Amino acid sequence: MVSRFNSQSLILVGCTLFVLYLAGIPLVMLLYGSIRSAPIGEPGATYTIQNYVKAYFDREFYLLLLNSVYYAIGTCTLTFLIGTFLAWVSERTNTPFKKLFVVMSLIPFIIPGILSTISWILLLSPKIGLINIVIKELLGLESAPFNVYSMWGMIWAEAIHLYPLVFLLMSAAFRNMDTSLEEAALTAGSSTVQTFYKVTLPLMRPAMVSVLLINFIRGIEAFEVPALIGVPAKISVFTTKIFLAIHQFPSDFGLAGAYAVTLLAVSTTGVLIYGRITRREERFATVTGKGYRPRVIDLGPWKWVTLGIASLIFFLAVILPVFVLLWSSFIPYYGVPSRELAAKMTLANYQYIMNYPLAWTAFKNSFYLSVGSATLVMLLTSIIAWITVKTKLPGRAFLDTVTFIPIAMPGIVLGVSLIWVYLTLPIPIYGTIWVLLLAYITKFMPYGIRAASASMIQINKELEEASLTAGGTWFQTFWKVILPLLMPGFTAGWIYISIIALRELSTSILLYSYNSTVLSIMAFDLWEGGQYTYVCALGVLMVLLLITMAFTARKLGAKIGIAE
Amino acid sequence: MAEKRDMVQIEALEKYFGEDKERVHVLKGVSLNVPEGSLYTFLGPSGCGKTTTLRCVAGLERPDGGRISIGGQTVYASGERVYVPTNKRPIGMVFQSYAIWPHMTVAENVAYPLTIHRRPKDEIKRKVSDVLKIVGLDGLEDRPAPKLSGGQQQRVAFARALINEPKVMLLDEPLSNLDAKLRVQMRSEIKSLQRRTNITTIFVTHDQAEALAISDQIAVMHGGVLIEVGSPHQLYSRPTRRFTATFLGLTNLIDGKIVELTGDAQPGKIQTKRGLLSFIPAPGLKKDQAAVVSIRPENIPLHKVKPQSSENVLEGTIKEAIFMGDAYQCKVAVGDDLLAVHTHPFNAVSPGDKVFLHLDPSSCNGLPADDKQGIDESMLGD
Questions:
Q1: How far is it, in rounded angstroms, from Cα B35 to Cα B165?
Q2: How many CB pairs under 8 A join A and B?
Q3: Per-residue model confidence as pLDDT tens for chain B (382 residues)
Q4: pTM score of the predicted model
Q5: φ, ψ of residue B199 in degrees (nearest 5)
Q6: In B, which residues are within 8 Å of A469 by CB distance?
Q7: For residue A550, which of A504, A491, A486 has the smallest C-alpha distance?
Q8: By the CB < 8 Å criterion, does A465 face chain B?
Q9: What angle, rounded to 10 degrees, do the helices at A238-247 and A59-92 form?
Q10: For FRET with A416, which of A70, A181, B47, B281 sits at 20 to 30 Å CA-CA?
Q11: Of the candidates B84, B102, B112, which has its C-beta nearest A470's C-beta?
Q12: Which of B54, B100, B103 should one mutate to test binding to chain A, selecting the residue with the greatest count of A CBs within 10 A?
């Protein structure tokens, strides 16, 4: 008779092997590839450290490192300032309209990175940038006041794209802080300012450090902004260098591998430090899950100042980019908004996209990949979360760790690794949509396991034991009881993953072929071809598709699981 | 009448929790038999191993040694490496939290044990309506589970456990989440339900009043060990272990040394510091052995004038008299001892009164003294 414990172990072993295949093999192959003298499959290849020598003894390498770090630090500082300011204003002050801030802060999240980058080029380019043209005309300037093709332009475009995450994390940190700790300091006789420095700041420090680290990592692995702005501006960072090493002819896989390993080392260090900090943070968290009512500070007349700054941020970060995308998608050629141009507004861009030979393939592929990877990731991580949360099997901690590995792998590094894997292994999926699907599953596993574990913890163990005592098998129990109860977390994770899958660019760009083109690649190609208005039309369609998918998922999730 | 066979047999059950250094021995060789058709209670303080034993019967915990059989079929045997998984055991279980699935209706919850076995639709419908009638929830089939009250949820849990006609019903503290009034009502309903269906039922509780009210038999557990088994009446009025006497209800303990025995369950004499007392010895007690006399507060008639017979009469002063409506709860100082005595309200008493206590010899139970099982009796005495 098969015992429940054996089937548990079987599931554990199965999941571990699968996750190792997804996350472990690419890592091994990346390291292997970086010490080979020639691309895999070519005869006569030997082991060598030449790739590293070539990489590290190049002056350009250090320039690259400097640029990458400069870019990442700039990005994480600016996102932190914007995000924390907005979080503080909306959680801790009596600034008017602060409810609206939350909605506004989430809009940039749904706009794919490639589109927000394009919108900033359309706004700040010295030649065609809307802001530049308008200011030049208003002030009668000779040259453009802003240049997006600079380090600061890059940092600005990236920060505007990344700040929603800081806003969410810092809002949570402000909300979860026990305000009685501050009140105790005030009653002990310290002033508001002293309280801030002696109590508030030290309490917030772990959250602040971890938010800074996350954004540093995201800055280091960013691809869209460096590719679209950095490359024309001749400002290279690791991600673009790797991309170019593979896209040049002939491709230099070895050098790309050496760079990728270096980039991986940097981001892994960041992730490890982040892991340590957040673990400690959890240990110090005395009360969890309790909603405190934050002490709201009465700003007096200053509340109009904070409102003004916040409105300016939203004008710059949300209204301008969305406007420029929408506007450009309806006009026949790119230009400053004017009555004359408005009269020429047309749907021709959309018609062009609809009739574009690859468009239908790209839409189909992106849709399948997004829905497929989100569904498979959530199913897989739901099972893994069950093992790590509900069982006491030895080896569950290892499984949890392996599932998390890809969080440290920048998209471009994953792309390089998978090239190695599927050029070497006798699995004929290179250049097909399947390799993209595997890449997406690997890349998004860490997000899935987070959502699934958080939900799984909340499910009372007796609910599944009731199914076992009623005669249900493990599979029946999982399918009929656990999964429906997990639905809120499942849906939330699914929506998040389908959104980031639909806009994925940095991994896809190394793995796609003609038949497996996706929307973000199509946008990239159109942009490279200089067809700005078409890109904007495509972008608007992408955002509409994303919103539709998110709403449908919520409806379906509520139907299957518990109604909210 | 033929001897009833045992529906559940547990032999020398062993269970550890935790790993390595943090290993805790939670079941230390528990053996017991649950007769067919009975309502059998595992009673003990928290951490005594009662729930763990129940979960081992259910297969939700895997024991580390021993043997369990249900209805003659071995479901666990350490030596023979037999382990039948939970879903293959002929059981129904009601959980402490009821574990009603919030994403299903009442009917879907109750029908679950049948639907997973792909029984025909009309059979499921008929059985669900039958079993809902039994628990008094007919007509609520389509109500979503989260819209039920605590008492209704519990009935759904019972219906779900009953529908497959299990050989054994396992109830894990099913009343602990109800308010006091509903608890009393539900416990008599559980008892009558069990009588009607005649399904062997194991009931786990830490509430001794609940155990006394509901059970055919009670197994008293403490510290992972089975202390003793008996009917509620037996355990209350004639406990054989010190722990049983103190855990079930309130009692007074007086230390002494046995000086005279006439035979099993025959009156004997014990020398205490309050003088020579007549008592009924627990089986196994020997002459000259240190023992303790246990007597319940309600078995001590209180007299204002000295009774005729001087046997088992102690003289004392009332220190405290609390009027409870149906009784006075008194603390009576006898020498430097304080005895709890309950007396009928017509017998008005007040602190300072000199009284005579008659320790009814047939209610004085002599128990082994060296049997403390590490329990803090001062906490139980009050």
A1: 17
A2: 87
A3: 445 689 999 999 999 988 777 888 999 999 999 999 999 999 999 989 999 999 999 999 989 999 999 999 999 998 888 899 888 899 999 998 888 888 889 999 999 999 988 899 999 999 999 999 988 898 898 998 888 888 899 999 999 999 989 999 999 999 888 888 888 888 888 999 999 999 999 999 999 999 999 999 999 999 999 999 999 999 999 999 999 999 998 999 999 999 988 877 788 999 988 889 999 998 888 888 889 999 999 999 888 888 887 788 999 999 999 998 888 899 999 988 899 999 988 888 889 999 999 998 889 999 988 765 544 443 333 3
A4: 0.82
A5: -85, 130
A6: 58, 60, 86-87, 89, 91-93, 161, 170
A7: A491
A8: yes
A9: 130
A10: A70
A11: B112
A12: B103
**Cα gap B137→A547, rounded to integer Å:** 44
> Domains (ranges, CATH) in chain A?
1-36+353-564 (1.10.3720.10)
Domains for chain B: give ranges and CATH numbers: 6-237 (3.40.50.300), 250-369 (2.40.50.100)
**Cβ contact B59–A484 (<8 Å):** no
Taking a C-beta distance cutoff of 8 angstroms, is the pair B199, B169 a contact? yes
Q: Which of A469, A480, A556 to mutate to test the interface with B (most CBs of B within 10 A)?
A: A469
B83, B102, B164 member nearest A3 (Cβ): B83
Asked if A470 lies within 8 A of B92 by C-beta distance, the reply is: yes
Task: Please list every residue in chain A whose beta carbon sits closer than 8 Å to the beta carbon of residue B88.
Answer: 1, 471
Q: How far apart are CA A170 and CA A41, in angstroms?
A: 49
Distance from the Cα of B175 to chain A's closest Cα (Å) equals 16
DSSP A481: I
CB contact under 8 A, B84 and A460: no
ipTM: 0.80
